[in-house]
Amino acid sequence: MDNHERLRRAGPLEEFFLARALTKNTNVAISATYILPNTFTLAIQEYVYKALETLISQNAALSAIPVREDNDTWFFRLPEIDLSQTVSFQKRTRDYPVEEKPDTELCELLQVHQKAEFVAPLPFWRMIILTEPNDQRFTAIYIFHHAIADGISGKAFHETFLIALHDAATSLTSGEATRQVIPSPKLPLLPNLEAVHPCSISYTFLLKQFFRNKICPYRDPGLWTGPKSFTPFDTEIRQIVVPEPVSTALRQRCRQNQATITSVIHTAAARSLLAHLPEEYTKLEAISAMSSRRWLKEEEGITDQSMGV
Q1: For this UniProt entry, which segments traverse the membrane (predicted)?
Q2: Other CB atoms within 10 Å distance of the CB of residue 166
């Protein structure tokens, strides 16, 4: 990587997601469907390329790749990104789902790309544009390695991509050319989480975990942890469509009872599993990720539209 700009070392959480690459479980995919107005008269590729040029110029994470060197992992900046190698366009072979039906074609694509590795010197993200015959509606699938971005970053990507699409319509109408090869921006990579927020662990916690796991290990006989897992394993993705009236009512009920939607999903999954498990199992353990952005917005310029871990 001698001809690539060295950015910074990977932080502990980023190292964690890089280590998970051994399990083939490090890709994140966020998709959204876009409907273009009739004023968008050029080919979809023109608008997508122009919008991505804007996003790449504003986010250092989109041109950063992790590279292992001796006992350290460093992020390096790619000098440029060739969109023809990162973005693919394909037409739907089935009609877009209607009447709240699952998008089976999307699920099949996600299953393939969920375990497709990212290899340097290509970017650690890719985009699939699933088009329809009328070219006015398309589904954009943004897939990225968890070491360069988190789930909220995927949401931020689509929010800023939507804005960039509107801007692309204006610039392309004025005759501005579309570029396929985008030079990487000279922006600093956002700092890792541990550098901007204290993530210390108390000695009491460490001693408690050591005692529980090494001195006096105990396994609750009522806790179901699933069967032994083996690698390699396959991922099966099924889409569940929740109608808007149902999701709105659920959100309102959660607020009334001072609960979160995450806790409701945990409870629903637990009740469903326990209904089919042997009677001796009475407990499950639920774990979810928590975004720390609410504590970082005032530090290092991190906002809701920032892309990183």
Answers
A1: none
A2: 12
